[in-house]
Amino acid sequence: MSSVEHGPYALGLTGSIGMGKSTVAQMFRDRGVPVLDADRVVHDLYSSGGKAVEPIRSLFPDAVVDGAVSRTALGLHLIGDQAALRRVEAAVHPLVAEERVRWLHGLAERGEPLALLDVPLLFETGMEAEVDAVAVVNAPADVQRQRVLARPGMDEIKLAAILARQVPDEVKRKRADFVIHTDVPLEETAKQVAHIIMTLRERREHGKWRAAEVGAFFSGGSGGRGEAGRASPPVIDLMDDDEKAEEALGNGAPSEAAAVVGGPAAPRTASPGQRAGRGARGGGRAGGVDAVARHERFQRKLAQGPAGRRRGGEPTAAAVRPAKLTPMAAQVQELQRRHPGVLLIIEVGYKFRFFGADAEVASQVCNIFAYHDEKMGAMSASVPVPRLHVHVRRLVEAGHKVGIVRQTETAALKKAGDNRSAPFTRRLTALYTRATLEAGDRDDVGDAEGAEAAARGSAGGQSYLVAVVERTAGGGPAGEVEVGMVAVETSTGDVLHAQFRDGLMRSEMEGRLMFAAPSELLIATPLSPYSERLLGAYCSSSAAVRAERVAGEKYDLGGAIAKLTSYYSSSGPGGRPAEVALAAVMDMPPLVVQALAHALDYLKPFGLDAVLRCGAAFRPFSARGELVLSPNALAQLEVLRNSDDGGPRGSLLWLLDNTRTAFGARLLRSWVAHPLCDAALIGERLDAVEELLGAGDEGDAVLARLGGTLGGLGDLERGLTRALHKTASPAELVTTLRALASVGPALGLQVGAEEDGMEAVPNVKSVLLQRLLAAAASREVSDAASEMLGVLDEAAAMENDRVALFASEARFPGVADAREELAEAQAALEGLLPEMRRELRQPRLQYTSVVNQGDHMIELPVDFRGVPKGWQKVAGTKRVNRYLPPAVKAAETQLELATERLQLAAGKAWTAFLTEFAGWYAPMRAAVAALAALDCLHSLAAVAGNAGYVRPEFVSQDGPQQLDIAGGRHPVLDALTTESPVVPNDCCLRGGENPGGACQGGREGLGDGGDPGPGPRALVVTGPNMGGKSCFIRQAALIVIMAQVGSFVPAERARMHVFDAVHTRMGASDNLAMGRSTFLEELSETSAILEAATPRSLVIVDELGRGTSTHDGLAIALATLEHLVSRVGCLTLFVTHYPKVAGLAQMYPGLVACRCMSYLQEGAPPASPQPRGGPGAGAGGAAAVPRITFLYKLVPGVADCSFGLNVARMAELPEAVVLRAGRARGRHGGRHRAPLE
Length: 1237
Prior knowledge:
By secondary structure, this protein is of the alpha/beta class. The strands form nine sheets. The chain has a seven-stranded mixed β-sheet with strand order 22-34-35-36-31-37-38, with helices on both faces. The radius of gyration is 39 Å and the shape is globular. The model is unreliable at 1-7, 119-126, 206-289, 294-322, 450-459, 996-1013, 1163-1183 and 1230-1237 (pLDDT under 50). Residues 245-288 are annotated as: Disordered. Residues 1097-1113 form the DNA mismatch repair proteins mutS family domain. InterPro entries: Depp_CoAkinase, DNA_mismatch_repair_MutS-lik_N, DNA_mismatch_repair_MutS_C, DNA_mismatch_repair_MutS_core, DNA_mismatch_repair_MutS_N, DNA_mismatch_repair_MutS_sf, MutS, MutS_con_dom_sf. GO terms for molecular function: ATP binding; ATP-dependent DNA damage sensor activity; dephospho-CoA kinase activity; mismatched DNA binding.
């Protein structure tokens, strides 16, 4: 391209994904350099008439639609087809390169400069030789990852795949002339761009200067161009210190203080290889002394700037500076500087706008148009005010921290103030992330779609922020840590905390994460590698989890206590210290205190820390009086969510949840995840459920009306908490207060009766129901709610009209004064009319209002001749003219000021009212908690009404442990299966020192007096694959959990002691994120059970030992069961496919019994303890693969085979494969040997 060498220049601009190329390209455009975008070239080639249309048509005819290439249709052909992709590249890439070169020549002939943006084949196809210089846009790898991973649909795997297809960044930097850094402030990047343009303009002014020589000179002589001889690129870095620049230039060689920093100090004269380096870019005048002189002038020019001069005509070293920012642009930059890491949505007039990188992110996430704003000097995008909440939710759900910046002054007040010529004052008024969204102002975030459904979802409609702190545990095995966790639900006020010791598996941490299901993690670093793996796996398993890291050492050595003591000792929203919360904090373990301090720091900028001042809201993750359910039990028993898609349907929670309120659904989720293990408390719940079950048309009127009353309450818990945060609207607060004031009368309760020494509900027998109904009908709460409603205009509140909201002038004097001022301004405006009527002799003269023209105009006929001098004509028609008299204009200004002052006064009064409300938050929340418990009990009563459900019986804890279930059914399967009934099964287990002989079933396990007869401590369950073994043991565990929640159970009879824990080992899956194989995962879970189980625990184990060889697996299964029976002494259900495990029944008679799932074998009677016709009965043909009919009935005995080939046939393996497997099975022996000794 010889023509380029004599005038214009061409710059190749490239860089990897996420480096900020588009931002840099816009900087070139702003400075008059046209930019050829690679995507634009491809777009033109694919458009109708483009050169690529016919080649694509020849490959994929259906990819050409209406004469143009459809990228969507083409993409469908290329997905997963590497050969097709190569054919398209071979056809299109030469055309792309040809088109770029054509554009380059055209601009060169017109004498225009050019920058080529994002040329993927710059270094591979020779395009490098077609430009005068190459600039690489660069940023550190961590900045690049952060930018790219913020894009929708991007993840680590996709990013790695993209980078693998590109030329490595270090190669690009070595082969480029300039490196533009984008990890610095935008103004610094702009300076780099300006200097590159200066460099190339100098070349144009001095004829045949080559950028290669410039790069060689500043890189220091021998810099590594390799075979081509190009030097390492200079790194542009300006400085403002004239003296240092002068010193650098005077020394003759670049140094750390030089304006252009490239490499080590070097001679000024470029080496011959460097001067001749860019052969393909033209010969040029070589160097000698002239080249050195040009280089010196260029270097001085680069440092001084073209316009800078010292006194006496000597040039200065002032750096080239970007154009002066407008006041609005400067304000936006200052806001972005003060709030790093926050995506800002800024109120500008009647829109909310995004600027800079925020605009590009919003464009991608919200699918809105982004453009370059010349006045702002940056990319911009906007959304209308009514759609703000939609886009805030989209951005937050995409994982961003979103800030709302609002104008804090109005036009009228600004016009009357001292800063009328300055931009509107703006400040950050709200911050939102996933964990704080639902606690936000509804004007900003709106209402979540399907909120009621979400409240019944897997996380209970909650969004917890979980802070995690850990330290190495002393005196324990390697890898053990002490962990402190605090979970804060800002929209409901729930605060959970725990400190615990955790092993290598981190099962305790996993269990708490599973229950809280956090939407945000606040991680205090450093963490141990095992904890990092678990939290990383948790975040990667759900795209809805956002993680943020903080420095853990900030609150070491007592810093957390000092922070919290200072916080709780200061006056809070209610005007007094939070003494209850401070006392609760003082009793917390040290790591919990540290986690709470980090959570407080995080929530304060959001303005959502008020929930931490309410000590009554603090509660542990799990208490001593609760049944322990490990993470495995929660997942494997599908307690909170199903294992198919993670949704609620098919889980135990789904079965039990018939709640009428969102806050009731959240409490029920906590009840199901943390059942009781106190017999008295369980009995109270069962009494309440039984009484509610009997309440109907003929029952107590209060209990009969309970369901209907609860259904109309709304989410009172969130309404109260949002009022505490001062984000509630008047309509929301009034709705909440109305409900609290009216719930007692709606139920027919005598409000405050218990406080007067009377029973609130005389006919209710349940102590728990009496207590909850009395708390819900608290006189204190009812009176406070009624008093607050009395000072508000409820009709105005429901319209969210804050100006008319305050009915009591005595209570809100500021609003009353502002109203009076507004009335005076209105009267003054109306008082001008009589004088104007007399002056104009128009007795019917009135003000005229026209949209977009004004509200108080005087309308006169066109031919009216007596218009006073000084009246401003606003608009006119063929018949009338509209005027604005000076006096009216002045009065209108006063009216606007009075209106806005009233709005400000109303806003301050509303804030003060919510501050006063904070003092009532705790008692009102207690009333809502009582209503939530009533809702849960009502839900359990609805379940108890199902056919075949009975009240479980609990035996004394002084006697031996036992589990006796007659006719038990799997509760969830029973609810889901409607076509055929679930086959009931009995389960009889009994502990103690010498339980006696084996029990033959639940019905035989009880004597006439109801005393448990002899029964085994453990059942070994065998049977065919898919015969119902796993379903049976899950059924027993779920019935225990339901009973200790306080629910009736699906059985003919259920009698048990109170268990302290349910431990499970079921299923087979690896955990690659934690680096654990399937077998390691299996044995790790078993190890945790053996360590944690007690004689009062229920343990269910399913197919232990199948992840290794038969002999090893059998040995492990035998040893594990023997340990549970002989040493732990817990009740155990043990499913196995190893018949030899049943040999323990002979070693421990009375302690271990054998059961098998019955079946029908083709041509044989139902299975017995020694079933006939096993798979080893024949050596070949169909006899080796019998057909099995499952009966799903548990009977005494041991199944001698698992009939795996029958399942192979059910899985539709080819029949030849099944028969061949049957013959092989027959040759190698179809039956296990006798049980091991």
